[in-house]
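Researcher: Here's my situation. A collaborator sent me these components and asked whether they could plausibly form a single complex. I don't have experimental data yet, so a predicted model of the whole assembly would be a useful starting point for our discussion.
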Amino acid sequence: MASVTIKQIHKHYDDFHAVKGVSLEIKDKEFVVLVGPSGCGKTTTLRMVAGLETITEGQIMIGPLVVNDLPPMDRDIAMVFQNYALYPHMSVYDNMAFGLKMRKFDKLEIKKRVENAASILGITDHLNRKPRMLSGGQRQRVALGRAIVRNPQVFLFDEPLSNLDAKLRVQMRIEIKKLHQRLSTTSIYVTHDQVEAMTLGDRVVVMKDGLIQQVGEPLELYNAPANKYVAGFIGSPAMNFTTVQVTNEGGVLYASNPAMRIRVPNALAARLGAHAGKQATLGIRPENLHMATGADNADNSLTAIVEVSEQLGSEVILDVKVADGAMVASVEPTVRVKPGEPVKLALDPSGLRFFDAVTETAI
Amino acid sequence: MATTAAPSVDREIIIGKPKWRPLESEGNLAMLLLLPTIALLLMFIAYPFMRGIMLSVTNSKVGVAGDFVGFENFARLLKDPIFHTVVYNTFLYTFVTTVFKLILGLWLALLLNRNFKFKRFVRAFILLPFIVPTVLACFAWKWMFDPTFSVLNWMLFKLGIIASGQGINWLGDGDLAMLSIMIVNIWRGVPFFAISLMAGLQTISPDLGEAAAIDGAKPLQRFWYITWPLLLPVTMVIVLFSVIQTFADFQIVYVMTGGGPANATHLFATYAYQLGVGTGLLSQGAAVSLAMFPLLFGIVIFQLMYIRKVETR
Amino acid sequence: MIEGAAWRRWVFFRFPVAIFLIFLLFPFYWMVITTFRPDGELYIPWYRANYKPLWTWNPTTAHLKYLFGETTFITWLWNTTFIAVVATAISLFCGVLAGYALSRLNFRGAALLGTTIFVTYLVPQTLLFIPLSEIIRTYSLGDTPWSLILTYPTFLIPFCTWLMMGFFKSVPKELEECARIDGATRWRAMLYIIIPVAVPGILSAMIFAFTLSWNEFIYALVFLSSPEQKTVPVGVISELVRGDVFFWGPLMAGALLGSIPVAIAYSFFVEQYVSGMTGAVKG
């Protein structure tokens, strides 16, 4: 069983506490993505699982085996690096065969495995070439091939697509997903790109400053973010945040600030009730804002002034100035407004999220 | 949603123990890899260095073990007029040749720092003075400087600069001899400076020069304000290497003048050789050699500090 | 770039470069001419009218014959090459391993060791030759090629180590990490991955060490005494100069032929030599 259990691991570099007590249980065959900004500890955690960094405190298990003291070669893992790390002096075939040669597999078995992996990835024609003759996408495939032939218990990915151009990135993302569907190897994938995280992960782990902010399925993170950070990290364009005062007016909760007075839907009112009379952070995603129509009333709309209108073809992104700040709205592609024009935007009540003004946790 | 997860307690847990691989430890592997080097350097540098110090504080001669005499050898050197000349010569020689090598090397590097036909050939050929065994090249120069048969004198004669009776006594006159060995040293060193500085120049992005040109800077200004400061770190390292080499130079003087005329071209190394091997006064020779060390060390430290200052600017 | 009129190119570029080339290469031309110039023409004072230095119309091989006939020049060539090759091999072996250890391994004392090796480079041969000659005598290594083969690495290794450190540092550490995950021990990762990738650096170190060995003089002068053991520089100076008499013809022949092997070896590795030199300076 190739599960990975990470129990309360810490990593100290001299006086820098990079990973502050991360715990995670990854099931067999699961594809888990660690996502977060640079410096959040995701790569360090991955490298501790790989054995490339020592574990200051805590325990990592692969299957039933505690691997803390095992060197990388004994952990039965394979890793795909950001800049491919292909051995430049060896052909593609030798690159892929290297790990098997080190483990003393016999020649026939090596040939079988390498050719099999090459055909899965579509690089059979390149087996005799050297890495420098290949394009970025092809090199990344070789790196994947190198990992596949070993048939390890766990795949580790360290931002493998960051060096590719945008179009190639989308292509390779799909390749990786198809690969996982085919091979079902337990995988841990590190990236700073939340789109990759959402599309690839069975579960996504959002990290910041060495701590896990939230773990869950992609849709769960999108719909029910545990705190303001996760809410703002997942989804593009990012969620809008604004400070509001929660008031109880005859049993009905309102969230207001100089730009708006929003009626809190009943579903949220229960939890928000405790914050009546206090400040809170209101979050609403750009896709939950639309141009106000006759059907919208003052309870769920706000006025703003257009600053920039970006036409994408499939939608229009409006950057608007609201009384105390700025907001972003993603509206229908037919909207035509000019900078400086005032607009009325309505928000979809089901998209409202509230966060504690101080702790930033979701209410 | 959960940020912590407790593993199921009823699962069997094995603690992974690594195989004993002594060379996996970085410390062990490093020790093994460095062993041959350290052994060789200990045997043939550290040990002789110690013996050199011991020699210099005795009065040994070839074949005769000496007695301990403390700093007598060094005291004698301090009073030795030849030694004074040697110190003066070495510093003068090092300083003047380094300055010229730098200027000429830099000029050549700037000249060659562009793409032109035969660039590779030119670059390969100009390194020849540096590659070829110095002793052999010095013979060619010595023949060129010979008082009776000098081709250089012939050239000056043909150009009308000297008359037939006024041959320049390149190696026979004290000051001229110093000039001659400087010329040979510069000849040998300019390629090293030129090639190394060329590499340094290539690390300076041409965008900087172009931006400056657009801003209105003339070539000389571009050089002074942009190229030179960026080149300074590399230049200092090159100068450091060259100074060490030149200070301890032996071959050029040995072949061309043997230290004469009248000690005018004696350097530390040649004087040490003359005393230690020539006249067999081992201890005195060792003392001269050792006297070189603190001075060299001082120059190196001074230059390293300067380099550090330049690099962290 | 010298833009503009062609005359500017001539004055500011072609002319200075030509002067430099003449200055740097004339002595070699002089070596060649003198080698083939008969004695009669050789010993004409410069102020005589019949002194025509730049060309000879009666080339002769007499000096070459003298060189090969009256001296053991061939033996010197062999000695020097043998010593250079073995000393280079030893130095490369030590330098590659030491360079790897110092640049890619973390261990206490790495910085100190690196500095120590740098300091040994500062101890010039002219400082050590006196005590070393004593040591060589004591261990009966005097007058054998081994006296040089064992002592040349003292100045070749520090240089090779630096050069290799520079090259090794440019190899990304992911390469090694990947190899270790693939199943290679540190030792095998070094052997199969890092060292092959650093081959250009090894070639640079090799050609540099080879030329430096050929150029070494004072140890060879002091440690070797019999003519059959001598290296080319020592042989030329001791056997072709009798007291105050210089046999200029054979001397120049010896100088020329002694320079050619190194020049040829260098010509095959010019790129490596240049990148080695610049790598050492930038590193």
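Model: Some features of this prediction you could bring to your collaborator: The CA atoms of residues 96 and 182 of chain B lie 8 Å apart. Confidence is low (pLDDT under 50) at residues 1-6 of chain B.
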